[in-house]
Amino acid sequence: MAGDVLAIADRLWRGQIDVASLHPVGGHRGGLAEPSAGVAFVPSFANVSAFSTEDGLVLVDTGSTFVARAVHQELRGWSTARLHTAVYSHGHIDHVFGVPVWEAEASERGWPSPVVLAHEALPDRFDRYVATAGYNGLINQRQFGLSELRWPTEYRYPDTTYRTRLDVEVGGVLFELHHAKGETDDHTWTWVPDKKVLCCGDLFIWASPNCGNPQKVQRYPREWATALREMLALGPEVLLPGHGFPVLGGDRVRQALADTAELLESLVDQTLSLMNAGARLDDILHTVRAPDHLLERPYLQPVYDEPEFVVRNIWRLYGGWWDGNPASLKPAREATLAGELAALCGGPSVLGDRALALLAMADDGADHDDQALRVAGHLAELAALAAPDDAALQQVRATVFATRARRADSTMAKGVFDWAARESAARADAST
User: Is residue 272 part of a domain?
Assistant: First the structure.
């Protein structure tokens, strides 16, 4: 299976496999690769990297609660050594729920408990997750299309935290932990100089950077790009990402890191240039484009997040929440505005009919077809808001957003559009 993992990684790099068919934010794939002597990699949700030392194993990330036991079993086929240290690359829940499985084993065998290392901002993230458990459960149901997801409220906090850099030696192997703002404010990337292995967490995930998630807190694109260039300067030969497959060979690793940095830098530079010229968010969203040569890379496809959402996050980071439209500063209720517009055009059904007409006109590919789909979404939403108990208009909304979900590339967009379609389909059924 190790050969399979590395062979798949090579074929993905060459573009021989569509990355969407092996979505980087997928479940436990099974298998284990040994990309370097004494290093194991388990592709999972999220990936887990293991290092063998004279004093036991060191893990970078530990997996989610759903796959922790499967990951443990995979690694036990590779090594029987105790877990000495675990590093959290950041506090997202798919990376931090494997430690209890190892601790239970340590207790049974009379071994010392493993030590957990993380950035100093990570405990605050866990505290925030407890305070917003209901909200996070809802948005992750929506994002991933899950009918039910209980957000955890109990976490294994780190034993030791650091601010900028922490060097740790375990069993004769040096691990350099470096802080970076990127997808999160608590990110750690780990460099193992003797092996030239880089564990980058989610700063590279075999997809367009997850730097714009519309339902999550602030991300940091400029700092993210800076961190990627700092990693690149070290000359890594093996890149083990938080999601997706390993990247092997210095040339490939340099290209992956440099291209991802360039993509983020381009989005930041374009957005700030327009902001400095006084453009509204609307103008910026429909002007800024990621460089075409980067979007062609198999490892930068917008299958999870997408550049348009990153632009919104850049605006939020540098410009606040207001979009520049004076009407949106203190807006009317959306349902009130929808009722006024429906009355002006002859009723909510007119809005619904036009939404369906635009949907019929739309065709994949051309820009005007994309705009037709976007306008259809606006009109379907307005119609449903103006007449929320009208089963026919709820069905229009369901149809429009189901179509938008099918034609979307990213998990983020598909999740929201699917959620809207399911919501209206249920309302339509309840109204008939």
Answer: no
The residue behind tokens 């009208």 is 390
Same domain, 253 and 353: no
Q: What is the pLDDT of residues 169-204, one digit of tens each?
A: 999 999 999 999 999 999 999 999 999 999 999 999
| Cβ pair 29, 14 in contact under 8 A | no
Per-residue pLDDT at 432 exceeds 90: no
* 366/251 same-domain check: no
**Distant-in-sequence, close-in-space partners of 359: CB < 8 Å, separation ≥ 6:** 372, 373, 376, 399, 400, 403
Instruction: Give yes or no: residues 134 and 226 share one domain.
Output: yes
> Which residues lie below 8 Å from residue 17, measured CB to CB, with a gap of 6+?
8, 11
Domain boundary among 264, 282, 298: 264
Query: What is the CATH classification number for the domain harbouring 357?
Result: 1.25.40.880
What pLDDT sits at residue 150? 83
**Whole-number Cα distances in Å, 11 to 49, 124, 209, 239:** 21, 40, 21, 16
Q: How far apart are CA 302 and CA 291, in angstroms?
A: 13
Cα gap 216→253, rounded to integer Å: 29
Query: Does the reported pTM lie above 0.70?
Result: yes
- The Cα 305–Cα 308 span in angstroms is 9
Planar angle of CA 178, 182, 186, nearest 5 degrees:
55
Domain tally, the chain: 2
292-351 tens-digit pLDDT:
999 999 999 999 999 999 999 999 999 999 999 999 999 999 999 999 999 999 999 999
Looking at the structure, do residues 356 and 253 belong to the same domain, yes or no? no
Whether residue 251 is found in the same domain as residue 363: no
Q: Which of 81, 168, 73 is nearest to 116 (CA)?
A: 168
User: Using CA of residue 380, residue 384, residue 387, residue 392, what is the dihedral sign?
Assistant: positive
Q: Show the domain range for 427.
A: 332-431
Q: What angle do CA 15, 19, 25 make, to 5 degrees?
A: 155
Please indicate, yes or no, whether residues 237 and 345 belong to a single structural domain of this protein: no
The answer to the question of residue 299 being in a domain is no
- With cut-offs at 50, 70 and 90, classify the pLDDT of residue 2: low
> Would residue 317 count as lying in a domain?
no
